[in-house]
Each structure stands twice: as C-alpha cells, then as structure tokens.
Amino acid sequence: MKKEIFLCAINNVLSGTCLEDCKFCTQSVRYHADIERYNYKSIETIVKEAKQAKANGALGYCLVTAGKGLTDKKVDFVARTAKAIKKEVNDLNLIACNGTASIEQLRHLKEHGIDSYNHNLETSENYYKSICTTHPWSERYETCQNVKSVGLQLCTGGIFGMGEEPEDRDSLLNALASLQPESTPLNFYHPNDALPIKTRNISRDEAIEIIKKAHRLLGEDRLLMVAGGRELLFDGYEDIMFEAGVNSIVIGNYLTTVGDAPTKDREMLDRLGYRVATTCHA
Question: How far apart are CA 130 and CA 128, in angstroms?
C-alpha cells in the first residue's frame, strides 16, 4: 500500500506590504510586482476559507502575513484568527508564518491555538547575503530555535534555483536537518519579471536529488513537502517526486501565484494510487 499524502493550504492574510529587499519575493514593495496587495483580511473571511480548505482535504492551514516579522498588532490578529478557526473547524493543524518572532510572541500564539510555526531559512547562510541585505540569515535560524523552545512544531525549508551553487544547497539541507523540523517545505524558484532574480537555475533531475537528500537527512517520520514551483517542475511527473520521498504538498493557490485546483491534485493522487491523509496524528 502506498503512503498517505498530507495536504496543506495557504492563506495570505496580509499581502504585499513588506519593506525588506529579498530578491526572490514579490511581496516586497521595492520591486513593484504586479500582485494583489491588501491589509488584513477579515477574520470571518479567513474562517470561511479555512472551512473550504478542510473540505478540500487540507490538514495543515497556514496563516501568512507579509513583513519582516511579528509586531504586537500581528500577534494579536493571528491569535484571534487562530482562536476563531479552532472554534469552528476541527482537526486542522494551524500554522503561523509571520516572519521573525520572539519566544514571548510565539508562546502567545501557541496559547491561542497555533500548532506550528513556519519560518524558512531560504538558502545557505553564505548565499543569503546575495539575496537579502535588510536582515541576516542568523535571525531566521534564531527564530526557528525559538519555535522549538516554546514547544510549537517547526516548519522550515527553503527555495532552490535562485542562482545558488550546489554547495549552497547542501549547506541549506544540513542547516535544516540541524533544527530537526517536523515539516520541511521545498520550494523551487518561480521567476517574475519584476524581481532581480530573472531565471531559475535548477532542473527536474536536480530537484529530485535535493528531495532524496532531504529525505535521508530529515528522516522517514517527518513531513517533506514540495510547495512553491511544484507545477513548474513536476506537472505530469508527480510520481517521481513522491517516489523520491515527498509525502506532503500544498493545494490551491500560493502567496502570490496561482496553483492547481484542489480537485485536480486530488484526482492526480487518486490516479497515482496515493491516499490523502485524514489525520495529523497518523
């Protein structure tokens, strides 16, 4: 019997307002990418969208806010949103993705219903200086350590294909493994004309090798997800992706790019003989 595949959905609850200069991110106001920009969604809308995600089979539901890190306002908003979702939607692993965060902020989110915190390392410590100058890689790593220290599940990964060298990819995977995350999203760069990084320097074969290495380093009992860029590299080739070790995918849209319809992904999994996981505790 083939393994179960865990589905996750993303909700961009505060979009396109970031002041940082990460060269891979359309949410930065510096690059004027043609994306939808808005302030906080209503909590009522987010709860409704969470119900739809659960109906589509998602077990993980990620609340994302643009910006460098948590502020008092963001902490309060995400906490109130988490509480509202948990009141109306059962068996949904709530993930917060709100940038750098202190122990106190993370503890507050945990107390109000957040189960996991996502903060990606993005790339190697050495290469990070080439793609972001407004904050250091060490702040990202420290936030991941803070997540572990308060007892939240850690979700951390990175983006491949941003011009990095093979040694940067290995360095990133080793750094991720050192944090022992419960979940690791592997993203593959999606070029946008507005961004400084114009092309993607990764092939499908290289992506498969990254998945295999991540699977070996992180272990059988952890979630290994292919998230952003999946449709670009693996459309029609999902079988080799799962065989390499992937056991989780994002369904629906991403932060600022359109993903496949959840029904299409469900049909793909059924065609390949995979079952959709129905509990986070499997």
Answer: 5
